UniProtKB/TrEMBL annotation:
Alphabetical UniProt keywords: ANK repeat, Repeat
Keyword Repeat: yes
Cytoplasm found in the keyword field: no
Phylogenetic placement of the source organism: Eukaryota, Metazoa, Spiralia, Lophotrochozoa, Mollusca
Protein source organism: Mytilus edulis (Blue mussel)
Protein name: Ankyrin repeat domain-containing protein
């Protein structure tokens, strides 16, 4: 069910059961997690996929590349997946396989809404001063570029 987004959308329209299991016991959500397909994970959750049934309650699940669902949500800006995992009690203090906190990941990728949620929870930016500097520098550079681009576009019009 995870390979072709068009086919998945067609199945949704025909009211396919998003929690149906294969003979091996795998659900579409679990298959999407194995593929680290955050877009499909988000689609399935929006269609009512049961995250507890899909992951057997293991919110610390990591895909084949070692990334947790929380890391994927922060990396791709999937606020729906992030909020659901947060609500279900997923660990937001975990340092990822690259040695970074989730806040560093969301800040670096520019996902302000997720970053704000993590800041409000008191999550550290990074585990070292160097990583913290890089995250803050990245945010500053994006903010500076955004303001410069907005001024340029305003002057252009």
């Amino acid at each position: 069910m995870c390979g072709d987004i068009t086919a998945v959308k067609t199945l949704f329209k025909s009211k396919a059961n998003v929690n149906m299991k294969t003979v091996e016991g795998e659900t579409p959500l679990l298959a999407a997690c194995h593929q680290d397909n955050i877009y499909l994970i988000d689609m399935l959750l929006n269609e009512g996929a049961d995250i507890n049934q899909a992951l057997w309650g293991d919110l610390s699940y990591e895909g084949h590349n070692g990334k947790s669902l929380m890391r994927l949500a922060c990396e791709h800006g999937s606020i729906n997946v992030f909020k659901l995992l947060l609500e279900k009690g997923a660990d937001v203090n975990k340092i990822d396989k690259d040695g970074r906190y989730l806040l560093c990941v969301s800040m670096f990728e520019g996902f302000d809404q997720i970053s704000e949620c993590l800041v409000l929870k008191g999550i550290p930016i990074a585990k070292s001063d160097e990583d913290e500097f890089q995250a803050l520098d990245s945010v500053f550079n994006k903010y500076t570029r955004k303001n410069r681009d907005e001024r340029y576009n305003k002057d252009k019009n």
